[in-house]
Amino acid sequence: MTDTLPRALIAIATYRRPRELALLLESLEQQVPACGADVVVVDNDAEGSGREVALASSVVTTYVVEAEPGIAQARNRGLDFFDESYDAIVFVDDDEVADAAWLETLLGFLRDSGIDIALGAVITTIPDTAPTWVTEGGYLQRGIMPTGSYVPTAATNNVAIRRTRWVDAGSPRFDPAFSATGGSDTAFFLRLGEAGLGIKSVAEAIVYEPMPTGRVTRRWVARRMTRNGIVAGRLIAERRGRRAVVDHGLGQIGVGIRLVLGDLRHRRPVTATSSRTLLMGVGEVYSAFGGRIYEYKRPRRR
What is the pLDDT of residue 301? Predict the structure, then answer.
């Protein structure tokens, strides 16, 4: 297995989640050595809250503190270790747990398909106490495309990137302008796509994301959907200007309203698709006038 799979560096950015990090690393204990991979843990807490967990793990090759606050800064520190000794870099979030066959499946698909970027599946584990509108409306679950499907962008929660193609694209980095708001990974993969890199889904490469009860609220869901719209609006504005953002956002709002009314007319719960379309449109328009949601804002280090 180690001779045939791409040699991979797994980059994990973490911030004050030692318990979740321990669960992730535990899920990697068998598969990382079997696949011949290395693991770098980038702790974005200047106090090193993940140090004890990372150093106690048998699979962690490198532990480093990135004291400059920001998720983009932490991801970029992971890229610093992505040298020519590796064929691929794998990003996974610190609050996820990998399926037993995750890494072999993800890297095997990257090898066999010849694709530049392989995007795995993230399945959200929703608490049993979640209200019915969450489960009936399909909220808090990400869409999973069939294996081999091309996708327009990706996220750093379960993805593998071929190094040669990343270098061909100019070895891009994550944009710190998105650190406080989120969306640096969306911008990063959009840039790779514009450079000609293809992204395909591999639905069998699964990680699980336990959803904290504090996020299972209408307020959190609505805020996240709106924030995603703001990110989309910023990316549209960079490429096509503010007027295009307003036009696209208003169009999304119109479609979203029709979808919500259709749900209500058929006496069914308002679905995640309807809400997402409407609120992402709101976020796009809001972004065109400077609106931001600073989901990850932290005090800068003195």
Answer: 53
